[in-house]
Amino acid sequence: MSITTVAAYAAPSAKAPLERTTVPRRPVGEHDVLIDIKYAGICHSDIHQARDGWGEGIYPMVPGHEIAGLVAEVGDGVTKFKVGDRVGVGCFVDSCRECEYCKQGLEQYCSGAGVSTYNSLGKDGEPTYGGYSTHIVVDENYTLRIPEGVGLDEAAPLLCAGITLYSPLAHWNAGPGKKVAIVGLGGLGHMGVKIAHALGAEVTVLSQSLRKQEDGKKLGADHFYATSDPKTFEDLAGTFDLIISTVSAPLDFSAYLSLVKTDGALVNVGAPEEPISLNLFSLIGGRKTLAGSMIGGIAETQAMLDFCALHGLGAEIEVIRADQINEAYERVINSDVRYRFVIDTATI
Protein backbone atom coordinates (compact mmCIF):
# COMPACT_ATOMS: atom_id res chain seq x y z
CA MET A 1 0.00 0.00 0.00
CA SER A 2 1.45 3.37 -0.96
CA ILE A 3 -0.25 6.53 0.25
CA THR A 4 1.41 9.85 -0.53
CA THR A 5 -1.51 12.25 -0.09
CA VAL A 6 -4.59 11.95 2.10
CA ALA A 7 -7.86 13.83 2.47
CA ALA A 8 -7.96 16.17 5.46
CA TYR A 9 -9.60 19.24 6.96
CA ALA A 10 -7.19 22.14 7.41
CA ALA A 11 -7.14 25.76 8.49
CA PRO A 12 -5.60 27.53 5.45
CA SER A 13 -4.57 30.52 7.58
CA ALA A 14 -4.97 31.92 11.08
CA LYS A 15 -8.62 32.27 12.11
CA ALA A 16 -9.84 31.01 8.72
CA PRO A 17 -12.55 28.32 8.73
CA LEU A 18 -11.31 24.80 8.23
CA GLU A 19 -11.86 23.35 4.76
CA ARG A 20 -11.42 20.05 2.99
CA THR A 21 -8.06 19.60 1.29
CA THR A 22 -5.27 17.04 0.82
CA VAL A 23 -1.94 16.82 2.65
CA PRO A 24 1.17 14.69 2.10
CA ARG A 25 2.09 11.67 4.22
CA ARG A 26 5.58 10.21 4.28
CA PRO A 27 6.22 6.68 3.01
CA VAL A 28 6.04 3.94 5.63
CA GLY A 29 9.57 3.55 6.97
CA GLU A 30 11.19 0.57 8.64
CA HIS A 31 9.74 1.35 12.08
CA ASP A 32 6.55 3.12 10.97
CA VAL A 33 2.91 2.15 11.06
CA LEU A 34 0.29 3.48 8.67
CA ILE A 35 -2.91 4.12 10.58
CA ASP A 36 -6.35 4.18 8.98
CA ILE A 37 -7.88 6.85 11.21
CA LYS A 38 -11.45 6.11 12.28
CA TYR A 39 -12.08 8.89 14.82
CA ALA A 40 -10.41 12.15 15.81
CA GLY A 41 -11.38 14.15 18.88
CA ILE A 42 -11.70 17.94 18.89
CA CYS A 43 -9.62 19.41 21.73
CA HIS A 44 -9.84 23.07 22.79
CA SER A 45 -6.12 23.29 22.04
CA ASP A 46 -6.95 22.59 18.37
CA ILE A 47 -8.92 25.83 18.38
CA HIS A 48 -6.20 27.79 20.18
CA GLN A 49 -3.62 26.68 17.62
CA ALA A 50 -5.77 26.94 14.48
CA ARG A 51 -6.57 30.53 15.48
CA ASP A 52 -3.02 31.52 16.47
CA GLY A 53 -4.01 31.83 20.12
CA TRP A 54 -0.75 30.31 21.36
CA GLY A 55 1.57 32.00 18.92
CA GLU A 56 2.29 31.86 15.21
CA GLY A 57 1.12 28.63 13.61
CA ILE A 58 2.23 26.64 10.56
CA TYR A 59 -0.35 26.76 7.76
CA PRO A 60 -2.12 25.02 6.25
CA MET A 61 -2.76 23.40 9.65
CA VAL A 62 -4.48 20.04 10.09
CA PRO A 63 -5.36 19.84 13.79
CA GLY A 64 -6.11 16.70 15.76
CA HIS A 65 -4.10 14.88 18.43
CA GLU A 66 -6.79 12.54 19.72
CA ILE A 67 -6.52 9.83 17.09
CA ALA A 68 -7.97 6.31 17.08
CA GLY A 69 -7.88 3.85 14.22
CA LEU A 70 -6.58 0.60 12.80
CA VAL A 71 -3.13 -0.36 11.57
CA ALA A 72 -3.22 -0.60 7.76
CA GLU A 73 0.46 -1.29 7.08
CA VAL A 74 3.66 -1.82 9.05
CA GLY A 75 7.31 -1.27 8.19
CA ASP A 76 9.71 -4.20 7.90
CA GLY A 77 11.22 -3.55 11.33
CA VAL A 78 8.00 -3.08 13.29
CA THR A 79 7.64 -5.49 16.21
CA LYS A 80 4.94 -3.88 18.37
CA PHE A 81 1.98 -3.88 15.97
CA LYS A 82 0.45 -5.81 13.13
CA VAL A 83 -2.14 -4.97 10.47
CA GLY A 84 -5.62 -4.71 11.99
CA ASP A 85 -4.49 -3.68 15.50
CA ARG A 86 -6.51 -1.00 17.32
CA VAL A 87 -4.18 1.94 17.91
CA GLY A 88 -4.08 5.56 18.95
CA VAL A 89 -1.87 8.62 18.58
CA GLY A 90 -1.70 11.44 21.08
CA CYS A 91 -0.13 14.89 21.21
CA PHE A 92 3.36 14.06 19.97
CA VAL A 93 4.80 11.73 17.34
CA ASP A 94 8.52 11.88 18.09
CA SER A 95 11.09 13.17 20.58
CA CYS A 96 14.87 13.38 20.80
CA ARG A 97 15.02 9.99 22.61
CA GLU A 98 18.31 11.02 24.23
CA CYS A 99 17.60 13.70 26.87
CA GLU A 100 17.13 12.89 30.54
CA TYR A 101 13.36 13.18 30.21
CA CYS A 102 13.02 10.90 27.22
CA LYS A 103 15.16 8.34 29.03
CA GLN A 104 12.78 8.53 32.02
CA GLY A 105 9.70 7.98 29.84
CA LEU A 106 8.72 11.63 30.15
CA GLU A 107 8.83 12.32 26.43
CA GLN A 108 6.20 15.04 26.81
CA TYR A 109 8.89 17.16 28.50
CA CYS A 110 11.59 16.38 25.92
CA SER A 111 14.30 19.05 26.11
CA GLY A 112 15.61 18.23 22.66
CA ALA A 113 13.65 17.70 19.47
CA GLY A 114 10.06 16.98 20.50
CA VAL A 115 7.69 16.74 17.55
CA SER A 116 4.01 17.55 18.03
CA THR A 117 1.38 15.62 16.07
CA TYR A 118 0.52 18.80 14.18
CA ASN A 119 1.66 22.42 13.92
CA SER A 120 5.25 21.25 14.30
CA LEU A 121 8.24 20.33 12.16
CA GLY A 122 9.32 16.69 11.95
CA LYS A 123 12.96 15.63 12.03
CA ASP A 124 12.84 15.76 8.23
CA GLY A 125 12.02 19.46 8.43
CA GLU A 126 8.54 18.95 6.99
CA PRO A 127 5.36 20.15 8.76
CA THR A 128 3.34 17.59 10.70
CA TYR A 129 -0.36 17.19 10.02
CA GLY A 130 -2.79 15.85 12.59
CA GLY A 131 -5.79 13.61 12.92
CA TYR A 132 -8.47 15.51 11.00
CA SER A 133 -7.50 13.26 8.10
CA THR A 134 -8.00 9.75 6.78
CA HIS A 135 -4.51 8.31 7.46
CA ILE A 136 -1.34 9.08 9.37
CA VAL A 137 2.14 7.52 9.44
CA VAL A 138 3.72 7.29 12.91
CA ASP A 139 6.80 5.62 14.39
CA GLU A 140 5.76 2.49 16.29
CA ASN A 141 7.43 3.83 19.45
CA TYR A 142 4.99 6.75 19.54
CA THR A 143 1.91 4.67 18.76
CA LEU A 144 -0.43 3.44 21.52
CA ARG A 145 -2.41 0.22 21.74
CA ILE A 146 -6.13 0.70 22.40
CA PRO A 147 -7.47 -2.23 24.45
CA GLU A 148 -10.69 -3.97 23.48
CA GLY A 149 -12.47 -2.70 26.60
CA VAL A 150 -13.25 0.72 25.10
CA GLY A 151 -14.73 1.71 21.72
CA LEU A 152 -12.51 3.54 19.25
CA ASP A 153 -14.85 6.55 19.21
CA GLU A 154 -14.86 6.87 23.00
CA ALA A 155 -11.11 6.12 23.14
CA ALA A 156 -10.00 8.93 20.82
CA PRO A 157 -10.34 11.71 23.44
CA LEU A 158 -8.39 9.64 25.94
CA LEU A 159 -5.24 10.35 23.91
CA CYS A 160 -5.27 13.95 25.16
CA ALA A 161 -8.11 14.58 27.61
CA GLY A 162 -7.66 11.22 29.33
CA ILE A 163 -3.90 11.39 29.80
CA THR A 164 -3.95 15.10 30.64
CA LEU A 165 -5.97 14.26 33.76
CA TYR A 166 -4.57 10.80 34.51
CA SER A 167 -0.99 12.04 34.72
CA PRO A 168 -1.45 14.63 37.50
CA LEU A 169 -3.91 12.41 39.36
CA ALA A 170 -1.29 9.66 39.38
CA HIS A 171 1.66 11.96 40.10
CA TRP A 172 -0.05 13.62 43.07
CA ASN A 173 -1.30 10.26 44.37
CA ALA A 174 -5.05 10.66 44.05
CA GLY A 175 -6.73 7.67 45.65
CA PRO A 176 -8.54 6.43 48.75
CA GLY A 177 -8.46 8.95 51.57
CA LYS A 178 -7.68 11.87 49.25
CA LYS A 179 -10.05 14.75 48.53
CA VAL A 180 -9.75 15.83 44.91
CA ALA A 181 -11.51 18.74 43.19
CA ILE A 182 -11.85 19.15 39.43
CA VAL A 183 -12.38 22.72 38.23
CA GLY A 184 -14.56 22.75 35.13
CA LEU A 185 -16.73 19.90 33.85
CA GLY A 186 -15.81 20.01 30.18
CA GLY A 187 -13.85 17.85 27.76
CA LEU A 188 -10.94 17.55 30.19
CA GLY A 189 -12.83 17.84 33.46
CA HIS A 190 -15.34 15.08 32.82
CA MET A 191 -12.49 12.62 32.32
CA GLY A 192 -10.86 13.90 35.50
CA VAL A 193 -14.01 13.08 37.45
CA LYS A 194 -14.23 9.58 35.95
CA ILE A 195 -10.57 8.75 36.53
CA ALA A 196 -10.34 10.26 40.04
CA HIS A 197 -13.45 8.31 41.05
CA ALA A 198 -12.03 5.08 39.62
CA LEU A 199 -8.81 5.71 41.56
CA GLY A 200 -10.87 5.79 44.77
CA ALA A 201 -10.62 9.49 45.64
CA GLU A 202 -13.46 11.58 47.08
CA VAL A 203 -14.29 13.79 44.10
CA THR A 204 -15.74 17.30 44.02
CA VAL A 205 -16.61 19.29 40.90
CA LEU A 206 -16.15 23.07 41.04
CA SER A 207 -18.15 24.54 38.18
CA GLN A 208 -19.40 28.06 37.42
CA SER A 209 -22.99 27.00 38.06
CA LEU A 210 -24.97 23.97 39.15
CA ARG A 211 -26.22 23.42 35.58
CA LYS A 212 -24.20 20.22 35.12
CA GLN A 213 -24.65 18.89 38.65
CA GLU A 214 -26.68 15.85 37.59
CA ASP A 215 -24.06 14.97 34.96
CA GLY A 216 -21.25 15.36 37.46
CA LYS A 217 -22.84 12.97 39.91
CA LYS A 218 -23.46 10.39 37.16
CA LEU A 219 -19.80 10.61 36.12
CA GLY A 220 -18.64 9.84 39.65
CA ALA A 221 -18.54 13.13 41.57
CA ASP A 222 -19.40 12.93 45.27
CA HIS A 223 -19.98 16.69 45.56
CA PHE A 224 -20.73 19.58 43.21
CA TYR A 225 -20.37 23.29 43.97
CA ALA A 226 -20.92 26.50 42.02
CA THR A 227 -17.87 28.79 42.00
CA SER A 228 -20.12 31.75 41.19
CA ASP A 229 -21.41 31.48 44.78
CA PRO A 230 -18.96 33.19 47.22
CA LYS A 231 -20.20 30.87 49.96
CA THR A 232 -18.49 27.96 48.13
CA PHE A 233 -15.09 29.46 48.93
CA GLU A 234 -16.06 29.97 52.57
CA ASP A 235 -17.49 26.48 53.06
CA LEU A 236 -14.63 24.64 51.33
CA ALA A 237 -11.65 26.57 52.72
CA GLY A 238 -8.72 24.25 53.37
CA THR A 239 -10.59 21.15 52.12
CA PHE A 240 -8.65 19.59 49.25
CA ASP A 241 -5.46 17.59 48.96
CA LEU A 242 -5.46 18.20 45.21
CA ILE A 243 -7.28 20.57 42.89
CA ILE A 244 -6.90 20.23 39.13
CA SER A 245 -8.00 23.20 37.03
CA THR A 246 -9.01 22.28 33.50
CA VAL A 247 -10.33 25.65 32.35
CA SER A 248 -8.67 27.65 29.60
CA ALA A 249 -9.60 31.05 31.05
CA PRO A 250 -7.69 32.95 33.77
CA LEU A 251 -8.89 32.17 37.30
CA ASP A 252 -8.49 33.91 40.65
CA PHE A 253 -5.79 31.46 41.70
CA SER A 254 -5.48 32.99 45.15
CA ALA A 255 -9.13 32.16 45.79
CA TYR A 256 -8.70 28.58 44.58
CA LEU A 257 -5.52 28.15 46.62
CA SER A 258 -7.57 29.02 49.72
CA LEU A 259 -9.41 25.72 49.16
CA VAL A 260 -6.17 23.69 49.29
CA LYS A 261 -4.99 22.01 52.49
CA THR A 262 -1.55 22.65 53.93
CA ASP A 263 0.92 20.75 51.75
CA GLY A 264 -1.76 20.33 49.07
CA ALA A 265 -1.47 21.25 45.40
CA LEU A 266 -3.39 23.23 42.79
CA VAL A 267 -2.40 21.84 39.40
CA ASN A 268 -3.22 23.63 36.18
CA VAL A 269 -3.76 21.65 32.98
CA GLY A 270 -5.83 24.29 31.20
CA ALA A 271 -3.76 26.73 29.15
CA PRO A 272 -5.25 30.24 29.07
CA GLU A 273 -3.96 32.54 26.36
CA GLU A 274 -3.65 35.39 28.89
CA PRO A 275 -1.15 35.65 31.78
CA ILE A 276 -2.39 35.35 35.36
CA SER A 277 -1.60 37.30 38.52
CA LEU A 278 -1.03 35.72 41.93
CA ASN A 279 -0.73 36.90 45.53
CA LEU A 280 2.17 34.78 46.78
CA PHE A 281 0.84 34.86 50.33
CA SER A 282 -1.80 32.39 49.13
CA LEU A 283 1.05 29.90 48.62
CA ILE A 284 3.26 30.76 51.58
CA GLY A 285 0.45 30.45 54.12
CA GLY A 286 0.19 26.67 53.90
CA ARG A 287 3.26 25.36 52.12
CA LYS A 288 1.01 24.93 49.12
CA THR A 289 2.05 24.08 45.59
CA LEU A 290 0.85 25.78 42.42
CA ALA A 291 1.88 23.43 39.62
CA GLY A 292 1.33 22.56 36.00
CA SER A 293 1.12 19.28 34.14
CA MET A 294 1.15 18.43 30.44
CA ILE A 295 -0.19 15.18 28.97
CA GLY A 296 2.00 12.11 29.69
CA GLY A 297 4.79 10.02 28.27
CA ILE A 298 4.21 7.00 26.05
CA ALA A 299 4.38 4.42 28.87
CA GLU A 300 2.08 6.45 31.12
CA THR A 301 -0.38 7.03 28.26
CA GLN A 302 -0.49 3.28 27.64
CA ALA A 303 -1.06 2.72 31.37
CA MET A 304 -3.94 5.22 31.23
CA LEU A 305 -5.55 3.43 28.27
CA ASP A 306 -5.24 0.09 30.05
CA PHE A 307 -6.68 1.60 33.25
CA CYS A 308 -9.63 3.11 31.38
CA ALA A 309 -10.36 -0.15 29.58
CA LEU A 310 -10.18 -2.06 32.87
CA HIS A 311 -12.69 0.30 34.47
CA GLY A 312 -14.88 0.74 31.38
CA LEU A 313 -14.04 4.44 31.05
CA GLY A 314 -14.46 6.17 27.72
CA ALA A 315 -15.13 9.80 26.96
CA GLU A 316 -18.68 11.15 26.78
CA ILE A 317 -18.85 12.03 23.11
CA GLU A 318 -20.90 13.57 20.34
CA VAL A 319 -19.84 12.12 16.98
CA ILE A 320 -19.96 14.62 14.12
CA ARG A 321 -19.35 14.73 10.37
CA ALA A 322 -16.24 16.49 9.12
CA ASP A 323 -18.33 19.24 7.56
CA GLN A 324 -19.52 20.15 11.07
CA ILE A 325 -16.02 20.95 12.40
CA ASN A 326 -16.35 24.74 12.17
CA GLU A 327 -19.73 24.65 13.90
CA ALA A 328 -18.24 22.37 16.56
CA TYR A 329 -15.43 24.87 17.20
CA GLU A 330 -17.96 27.58 17.99
CA ARG A 331 -19.89 25.23 20.24
CA VAL A 332 -16.72 24.29 22.16
CA ILE A 333 -15.98 27.98 22.74
CA ASN A 334 -19.53 28.39 24.05
CA SER A 335 -19.23 25.28 26.26
CA ASP A 336 -22.04 23.69 24.24
CA VAL A 337 -20.81 20.10 24.15
CA ARG A 338 -21.20 17.17 26.52
CA TYR A 339 -18.39 16.49 26.59
CA ARG A 340 -16.15 15.90 23.57
CA PHE A 341 -16.77 16.21 19.85
CA VAL A 342 -15.35 13.31 17.85
CA ILE A 343 -15.05 13.44 14.06
CA ASP A 344 -16.08 10.37 12.10
CA THR A 345 -13.18 10.50 9.65
CA ALA A 346 -15.05 8.39 7.11
CA THR A 347 -16.90 11.63 6.34
CA ILE A 348 -13.77 13.61 5.35
Automatic annotation (TrEMBL):
Protein name: alcohol dehydrogenase (NADP(+))
EC number in record: 1.1.1.2
Family matches, as PANTHER family: ALDEHYDE REDUCTASE
Cofactor section: Zn(2+)
Entry-linked Pfam families: ADH_N, ADH_zinc_N
Catalytic activity: a primary alcohol + NADP(+) = an aldehyde + NADPH + H(+)
Occurrences of domain Enoyl reductase (ER) (ranges): 16-343
Family indicated by similarity: Belongs to the zinc-containing alcohol dehydrogenase family.
Lineage: Bacteria, Bacillati, Actinomycetota, Actinomycetes, Kitasatosporales
UniProt entry tagged with the keyword Iron-sulfur: no
UniProt keywords, alphabetically: Metal-binding, Oxidoreductase, Zinc
Primary enzyme class: oxidoreductase
Species: Streptomyces beijiangensis
MF terms in GO: alcohol dehydrogenase (NADP+) activity; zinc ion binding
